Amino acid sequence: MKKGKKLYEGKAKIIYATSEKNLVIQYFKDDATAFNNQKKSTIEGKGVLNNRISEHILSNLTEIGIENHLIKRLNMREQLVKFVDIIPIEFVVRNIATGSLTKRLGIEDGTILERPLIEYYLKDDKLGDPIISREHIIFFNWLNAIQIKTIDTNLYRMNDFLLGMFRAVGIKLVDFKVEFGLTHESGKTKIVLADEISPDTCRLWDSITEKKLDKDRFRKDLGDLIPAYTEVAKRLGILHEQSNVTAVNVTKLSSVKKKNK
Predict the structure, then answer these.
(1) Of the four listed, 166, 195, 224, 229, which is most buried by Cβ atoms within 10 Å?
(2) CA R_g for the chain
(3) Burial of 144 from C-beta contacts in 10 A (0-12 / 13-18 / 19+)
(4) DSSP code of 75?
(5) Per-residue pLDDT tens over the stretch 196-220
(6) For residue 154, which of 62, 73, 43, 218 has the smallest C-alpha distance?
């Protein structure tokens, strides 16, 4: 399928048009950002790993009935996905307290939550992605009550599935962030999971050592991302087609090229 003009460029991905109005190409960049884009770097090969990991996870979610935008992976950096109107809300599911939750509420870092906690954040970098309530979402017509309930149900199902997937390979799923969008096909509007699920959007800790295998390595200057992301991909068993990520040459990707803000 022929790639058309650039429709949108975000912090980690670029969206291109195709010859089909309901399909677009999602390109994974090597850019890394944190703290609402205040910290930036280019980490060579990150986009390749996120593309592969996200494809694997979204494909597995499709098999359990979680509809999402993925059609197929096209190459090392690109996916063919459904065109969606992104809902301006970030949905966060937490299993262990860390990050902003501990700072806001004074909860001890690493506290295991009795049950999964769902939080909603307005997707707006200029405002610092503020936390919002269900009432805000309904009042400002971002979603209605039925749509929120449907998304929450899917979030709990996703969490159960992902907890098991990662637990089986010795990884704790601490929390994850996802986005949803609206598709418009055959005169019908449907909510589907969109964006990506990868170590960029999940907190993943080794089950024994609690070593960080996610973007916190970049946020907290804990060391290179590439070996950690590669470890996640290897444990999930998805590097068999490129056993040493040959097109990226992972052994040379430990260097991080930092850009000035």
Answers:
(1) 229
(2) 18
(3) exposed
(4) S
(5) 999 999 999 999 999 999 999 999 9
(6) 62
Ramachandran angles phi, psi of 205, nearest 5°:
-120, 140
pLDDT band at residue 240 under the 50/70/90 scheme: low
- Which residue in 81, 87, 80, 109 sits closest to 96, CA to CA? 109
Q: Which residue has the tokens 């709990």?
A: 156
Six token digits for residue 109: 């870092």
Q: Any idea how long the chain is?
A: 261
Per-residue pLDDT tens over the stretch 137-170: 999 999 999 999 999 999 999 999 999 999 999 9
Residue with tokens 């307005």: 122
- Cα–Cα distance, 87 to 70 (Å, whole number): 17
Q: Is the dihedral of CA 104, 232, 26, 256 positive or negative?
A: positive
Distance CA 87, CA 258 (A): 31
- Domains in the chain, CATH or no CATH each: 3-84+224-252 (3.30.200.20), 88-206 (3.30.470.20)
Residue type, 45: G
Tokens standing for 30?
A: 């090597």
Query: Taking the model in full, what pTM does it have?
Result: 0.89
Closest-CA residue to 222 (of 205, 207, 239): 205
pLDDT the model gives residue 2:
84
